[in-house]
Write a structure and sequence with these properties.
Length: 130
């Protein structure tokens, strides 16, 4: 199934957009299949949903994905380190981009979980088309 993936551009390649500095950060490369050690990869079903979540250091890719399923409305509870990190990210980069978003780990509209993702073609960069 075709999906859209937002990835962070770093000196060492394309990485998970949200996770930073821990063992859950995934690396991505064009044409290479990426599978998480545990859990699922996050992606978007529709281009317009993915575009709303990009930052300056990120790219948007059209991907082929396996094991695609609609993400639950919430991905974690209301406590713990994950929620704290997500709050910091939301406050810094995304405030006001999604109506009815609360600090409750709600998944963005159009989010899907995938068991594996293969980047196919770059679909966009923040601030301009490719």
């Amino acid at each position: 199934m075709k999906v859209y993936k937002v990835v962070r551009v770093t000196d060492s390649g394309l990485k998970s957009a949200f996770l930073r500095g821990n063992e859950t950060v995934l690396s991505y490369a064009e044409g290479k299949t990426t599978k998480p050690l545990f859990g699922k990869c996050f992606a978007f079903k529709r281009l317009k949903d993915a575009q709303g979540w990009m930052r300056e250091d990120q790219e948007l890719w059209l991907c082929e994905a396996e094991g695609v399923e609609k993400a639950p409305e919430r991905v974690a509870g209301d406590s713990g380190e994950a929620l704290s990190r997500f709050k910091e990210w939301w406050e810094e980069f995304s405030i006001g981009r999604s109506q009815n978003f609360e600090y409750s780990m709600r998944t963005p509209p159009g989010t899907v979980f995938c068991s594996e993702i293969t980047l196919l073609n770059i679909a966009g960069k923040k601030g301009g088309d490719v």
